[in-house]
């Protein structure tokens, strides 16, 4: 079964959605839309499809089965409601919306219309993150103590409607919840604003999870090299993930090596042990994300990242922004 697909907004991320739809055998890219006519024409010509500057015209003329929405965050509500109103299944690039209230409106509209709604938290489809979650779930780390996220790099000129928390930290907030299967209950943030933009450019945050895990986030648009790293520390050692290269490493705590779980109720020490680099079958996360979305549209699998998942990540991100502005701890 081949699905008619379309992309609304073909900036830096949207054009990649168009490319992957064009590459997938189960998708027929019937159109793309962008407010910039030159961009729309260039991307449409590259992927042999129709160009539009009015997304409503695209939806009405091409009648796609599935749409990716990759417009600026402030436009998510308006465009999402137009897609949902036409009964078309929808993948929204993260974050789900500009505000929590708008996200709730999108979720309610999709539910009432019977439309499948997926949120593009792409790191969930990173093979190294999937492998990490499996190792944690089967107890290879024992009790998890701490999760540290580092997401740093240069300022992206494409972003002007949100700050680094809403644009980047939502990834790591979602990953922390995903790999730990635990809820966040408390957050504190320090932010710095007005360096590059009107919004925060730097975040250092501390989060507490319901099972006692402590999380830290170091996020910024100030670092002249791109860093995407996740560290998970537990009784048996440390997992380190390079999200860019999809590499997963395990640094063993030699003291805990070979001990039965009963003996690990009280950790008696930490000592450097062996390092293992896991073999990961690498795959483009965006391709995996779109394959999952189209599988959900066909009814073959459940939606992988629900509207509620996206909403919780946005709620946590906005709590961090508030904490940074008001210099106080927030219960979430």
List keywords for this structure.
single chain, about 325 residues, alpha/beta, Rossmann fold, Dihydrodipicolinate Reductase, domain 2, 2 domains, 9-stranded mixed β-sheet, 6-stranded parallel β-sheet, 9 helices, about 30% strand, globular
Task: Describe the protein's architecture and organization.
The protein is an alpha/beta fold and 332 residues long. The protein folds into 2 domains: 3-115, Rossmann fold, CATH 3.40.50; 124-283 and 316-331, Dihydrodipicolinate Reductase, domain 2. 34% of the residues lie in helices and 28% in strands. The longest helix is centred in the C-terminal third of the chain and has 20 residues, at 307-326. It is globular. The mean pLDDT is 94.
